[in-house]
UniProtKB/TrEMBL annotation, chains A, B:
Keyword DNA-binding (UniProt): yes
Protein known as: LacI family DNA-binding transcriptional regulator
Keyword annotations from UniProtKB, A to Z: DNA-binding, Transcription, Transcription regulation
SMART domains, A to Z: HTH_LACI (SM00354)
Superkingdom as given in the UniProt entry: Bacteria
InterPro entries xrefs: HTH_LacI, LacI/GalR-like_sensor, Lambda_DNA-bd_dom_sf, Peripla_BP_I
Record CDD domains: HTH_LacI (cd01392), PBP1_LacI_sugar_binding-like (cd06267)
């Protein structure tokens, strides 16, 4: 190729890798020669110089079966695709078991020039990914967390505890005093934020949750926790779940156990998935606008990739949507 | 590069593209020289010769909002990922509006060397994709359909109408005579197969459905159809839906309208999603083993890509899972 272009092999290397100080004309001549040799028309060859794959990575650090059970990810993907699809971008989905696998995967995908950017989910305290991705030079956004010191911009609603705080206030206003909080895994940032908000709201009323249970987000966990809590001698009169799937399971499990919802047990979900509108009773839940957050994340990332997109608009916060699965405290028998 | 390797530029081209008749030693020498120039470690360079991207495409020809509403796709992706993730493969998800966009996308992805294979969903009569993908030389599997004449192997359960047939038989045995069938879009192969099976089962009992409604699979459609059917003067006593999300909406809508399920209306879903086990009443549904079909599709495709995987095992057929949302015909008032 150096011979074909009439330049040194070092110049070929520099032209190909986009390094060094060769002139644009030389670079052009090398790449033209490469084209004649059959390299250039392929976007893979382009990817060698600068990633432009029209592919965004979404790496999910969950067991595969949770992906199926929790519609949250479908909602997120829907929001992302709403911005990616019209621009011809695809979403490269990888499931990994742990953070080490996730980090190794970004390194491989960047080394192989397969992606233009990444959407990071499930922010953790001491998250190694922002530093890693900055080191790799990969555009990225982090869902949920918004740490101004982080090299990766956060995309999400502000005041992450606001929805759960509203849920607690709503239940207190209905007269509930025995509230249980079912949480996600303890190592997730949003788990901590929401739990703290719930406990603070109760503390302001001089109360503490009668129970807090961490779960792995599965429906099986929702059933087991609901059965356990409703069999307590001093059972809670209100259950607050970390997602809608679990809340729906909680309602079904309570009804099956002979408890009327909301007459005897109030139930609150989280995510405001479409299904909750149509159930009977309709689900009271926290709307965290998963689709809109996904859309905003896609726009923020596309802008980093040099696409001309409208700025992401997310001026809201999580809000409680009161429907039918919450009601006044049952009067004492 | 030719200079570095001490060969002709034609040999470089042949080595790089894997074409021509150069010896393995020459090819090796060229690639070693390329490596020294900084090309070789990148898988993108390899992709120029032969796609080996560890990426499988899943192109979904649906509006983005259906993806969020219908957990079917989460289940399918879960099944695919169960086989792909442990082998380091990713799933490249693209949403497209129509078949023309879908075809153009395969052409681009193959031209750019971005994928090793594709999983095709939503088989249609006169499906152009199998011929297209054969022409592109892209490994592929087609979910559901199993046309022996097709150049793309089908992966799916046999006897696609079997589950709906069982559902009809179950309802007839419970004494129902006024059955309504809610179907998916009319242009999908499985819609036709299932509807035909349902109508045949009723015909054998000397009956016809009191109503058949085609829908776009959305929850809104489920609510509207349920309201419409239950307000008919000669309303159906049993509703058979094309997916579980719609069935759950149907149950909620019936209950909201004052109908007890199953005492006054029986409801059958399709897909056997996890949620149905926990609702009250638990959902009677057709198990088409979406996750297992996804896993089998992944294995079939990985084998075509040269991976050493166990053969896909799918010896079943869709089967009715009887739970609590179906019951005996209500006795006449």
């Amino acid at each position: 190729m150096a011979a074909a272009a009439g330049v040194s092999t070092a110049a070929v290397s520099q032209a190909v890798n986009g390094t060094g100080r060769i002139s644009e004309a030389t670079r052009r001549r090398v790449l033209d020669a490469a084209a004649e040799l059959g390299w250039s028309p392929s976007a893979s060859a382009t990817a060698l110089r600068r990633a432009r794959t029209r592919t965004i990575a979404l790496v999910v650090r969950r067991p595969t079966d949770v992906l199926g059970a929790d519609p949250h990810f479908s909602e997120l993907i829907t929001g992302l695709e709403g911005e990616l699809a019209p621009r011809g971008y695809g979403l490269l989905l990888h499931l990994v078991a742990d953070m080490a696998q996730e980090s190794a995967l970004y390194e491989r995908l960047v080394a192989e020039g397969r992606i233009d950017g990444a959407v990071l989910t499930d922010a953790r305290a001491d998250d190694p990914r922002p530093q890693l991705l900055r080191g790799l030079g990969l555009p990225a956004v982090l869902l949920g967390a918004s740490d101004p010191a982080s090299p990766v911009p956060g995309v999400g609603l502000g005041q992450q505890g606001a929805g759960v705080r509203e849920a607690a206030a709503h239940l207190l206003e209905l007269g509930h005093r025995r509230l249980a909080y079912i949480a996600g895994p303890a190592d997730l940032v949003h788990t901590g934020l929401r739990r703290a908000a719930f406990e603070e709201a109760l503390a302001e009323a001089g109360l503490r949750p009668v129970a807090v249970r961490h779960t792995d987000f599965t429906e099986e966990a929702a059933v087991a926790v609901t059965e356990e809590l409703l069999s307590l001698p001093d059972r809670p009169t209100a259950l607050v779940f970390p997602n809608d799937s679990m809340a729906v399971c909680g309602i079904g499990t309570a009804q099956r156990g002979g408890f009327r919802v909301p007459e005897e047990v109030s139930v609150v979900g989280y995510d405001n998935l479409p299904l909750g509108r149509w159930l009977h009773p309709r689900l009271t839940t926290v709307d965290q606008q998963v689709q809109r957050v996904g859309a905003a994340a896609a726009r923020a990332l596309l802008a980093q990739c040099g696409e001309n997109v409208p700025p992401p608009v997310l001026d809201g916060r999580p809000r409680l949507v009161v429907r039918e699965s919450t009601g006044p405290l049952p009067s004492a028998p």
